[in-house]
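Final report, Chapter 2: Outcomes

The project's central promise was a pipeline that accepts a single protein chain and returns its three-dimensional structure in a standardized token representation, suitable for archiving and comparison. That pipeline is now operational. To close this chapter, we reproduce one record exactly as it appears in the project archive, with the input sequence first and the structure output second.
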Amino acid sequence: MTWVTPGTGLLLGAIVIPLLLILYFLRLRRQPLRISSTVLWEGAVEDLHANSPFQRLRPSLLLVLQLLALLLVVFSIMQPQVEGGSPKQGKHVLLIDRSASMAARDEGGVSRFERAKIKAIELVSTLHGGGLFSGSGSETMVIAFSDSAEIIIPFADSEQQLIAAIKSIQPTHGKSYIEEALKLARAYTTNVDPEQNGLALSESAQLELFSDGQIPDLQAQALQRGETLHYHRIGEGEQTNIGIATINAKRISETSDDVQIFLSLINTGEQEITTDIEVSVNGSPIGVQQVLIPAQTEKNSGTASVIFMPFSMPSGGVVHAVLTSSDELAVDDVASLIISPPKELRVLLAENGPSLVKTVLEGMPLAKLQVVAPSALQTMVATQETSSFDVIVTRDVQLEKLPQGNYLLFGSPPPMDAFSTFVEGEAQVMLVAKENHPVMRFVRFENIVIAKGFEIVVDERLDVLLEGSGWPAVMTVRDRGVQVVYVAFDPLESNWPYLRSFPFFVYNAVQFLGRSGDALSSALGKVGETISLDVPSGVERVSIKEPNGQEHEVSVDTTGRAHWGPIRITGLHAVSWNGQLQRRVAVNSLKEESNIASVESISIGANTIEASESSGASFIQLWPWALAAVLVVLLLEWWVYQRKTGGVSRFLKTSAKNSWT
């Protein structure tokens, strides 16, 4: 039962009912009497006490009837109404959409997801609330879905349990897919009866869908025999939304600390929108840009690209982008990116003769520098021990084979097809360098003079970085997991070791090879995926804190890895162990969920279903019946009053006398 104007009726009842009681307290009950003895005055004196408002209220049928009449008047003013049609009997499955688009808020500040739960609770009360107009013999099941589906409560007939289960549903920021939810519903509504030739037909089940209708895979589904679908539309049709579709970062070069941020913005509304977007690094703003995002055209959303000027980020951290304009969906107004710090490299060195390259490498900030004899290097290559190093450097060492890895080689050509054809190179000077390549950055080559080397016959596989007057001096190649920077001469056969450009070159080459292929942004996750990470030995438990503040304790398995998931919401997830923050995982919204227009009808298979704001039952107004009951009570009250005062007998006598005359 619902009430149209409950406040007005309650206010009226609070005024008139106390007034009626006060009148009964104060009214005089004396009447003139002729008596022959003063003894009879005692009864009259007792009547005088009735004038006191603090006397006990005597039972009165008239008072009861008058109170009943007033209560019925109050009841009718509150305009009660009930659903006139009983809901469909049998099994009901409540499918509640909790995807990212359901986080959009209406004018009252209530999210679609919360509105969907309110409507679902109202339906449960109608089905299981008891009384004349409620369902009976029904069972209801609740399933929440987004990128995956979850049974919140299996079939139950308890109103309290169902309402508590609906209230416990938590939102997610994933995509909206209904296929898994339908499979779960059908698994519970299909019976296997060995006495009826195996699989029986599905029981009649009504699917109650609470969603904004933005479900990409809905049309690919189909209703099975006996199923009906009722679409409870949540949200408004025309709602403008802008968001961050993608965020990415790139270093200016392999050896540079400068980072550039790229953003793609999206507009799903019919009006172009101008907004400001602010980017910060580790909480410190680095820039704000104003962007005009065009309106959507037909079914294609409007897009705009933003590029921020490069900024220095030598140690890594968190890049955070925020749209300053507010709209109905706040989930896609922010995006984060974890920038990895430059990797500290592990370098393996082998060289013949003086420690020329070793002197340069010892001046570099390396995680590890291991120097071995050429013969020891050959053994390490054979046993694949070199795989634990980021870069292998050799000078005047002839290797028999090159396993997968990164190599800086001086002198003899490496055993690769690209370097298989060569002759002895004569003396030369340097003429041309590819100065925009990371390896040749800050390398002044004009004064380099080479006495002799190896003249490689260059083909399309080789990228020449430094060209001499007679033959190429420095080349690079990448082939089948092997990346090589090759210097076609021994530095001792030149004046290069005496020039400042030599340590620059070694530094650039090692950084280029060691960082090549590393992702600049790391620890990016998606809603619905699992966070998996390696944990140091000795750590048994890992704490993962979601952006909403919820913390989860995860045990480390026997392989030294911790797993938690699925990821439910967007934002920065903090991973800690031993009481200290170890890393963050950035989870950004999906651009598919930025379209928040609520649709009026949905299609499932060949069926088109119109949206409805209610459960489909008509309402019966009860206030006219209450007013009719007031008239009946007033007539009864008049009859009782006339009986007490003798008015009825006089009325009958008068009527009889008139009939005789």
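Archive annotation: The radius of gyration is 43 Å.
This record, like all others produced under the grant, will remain available to the consortium after the project formally closes.
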